[in-house]
Amino acid sequence: MKPPVMSELARSAISPARAEGTRAADADLMESFLRNDGDAARRLYDRFASRIYGLGLVLLRSKTDAEDLVQDTFLKVMRIGSAFDPRRGSLDTWILLNARGIAIDLLRRRSLEGRKLSSLPRISEASDEAGPEWRAEVRDLFQRANDAMGRLPSGQRSALELTYLGQRSTREIAEMQGIPRGTVKSRVHAAVASLQKAFPEDDDAA
Questions:
Q1: pLDDT tens, 119-173?
Q2: In Å, what is the CA distance from 89 to each residue of 22, 48, 95, 167, 188?
Q3: What CA–CA distance (Å, rounded) separates 188 from 72?
Q4: 3 in helix, strand or coil?
Q5: pTM reported for the whole predicted model
Q6: Check: CATH 1.10.1740.10 for 5-110+134-205?
Q7: Handedness of CA 14, 15, 16, 18 (dihedral sign)
Q8: DSSP characters over 30-47
Q9: Phi-psi bin for 86: left (phi > 0), alpha (psi -120 to 50), beta?
């Protein structure tokens, strides 16, 4: 039986020397990014874009919203990047927490808008029919997301959970599971691709 995710997280010890080196490299990367260094921007995008997109798929259940989350997160990082302090935590955690905060804010706005709409008087038969259809669509999206996660192979699901829920870097996951970083990346990308199939393009066009 595969150990639970939290057990893997508890075993994930990174040496102080390596952690210090990573913090220094992350600080240099952010400084270069805030100076509008093109290479630093590409490195940040390559490192985080797919992870933010996957987080958006999991939380927002929409490919379009996941794409917007990537853009909004990098815009926010550009605005508040000077607030990043490598002594307080890793760059991976800081950026993914910002992405998660943006996604949660969007979910809260959706909930508020839904409550406002539900309090409006019904003015036509068409509006009477919209409520049940919308609720059924939301239930369907959640069910497809849960089903897609459940169908993932254990290796892919573990890599996805550690990346987005455990907020671990590919290097940390590779060390925890004793596999190459390339294997971790392949598993995460394959898992995200499987989740994408649960949300065909016609959902975004609706």
A1: 544 434 444 344 555 555 555 655 666 677 778 888 888 887 777 666 677 888 8
A2: 11, 16, 10, 11, 23
A3: 22
A4: coil
A5: 0.54
A6: yes
A7: negative
A8: HHHHHTT-HHHHHHHHHH
A9: alpha
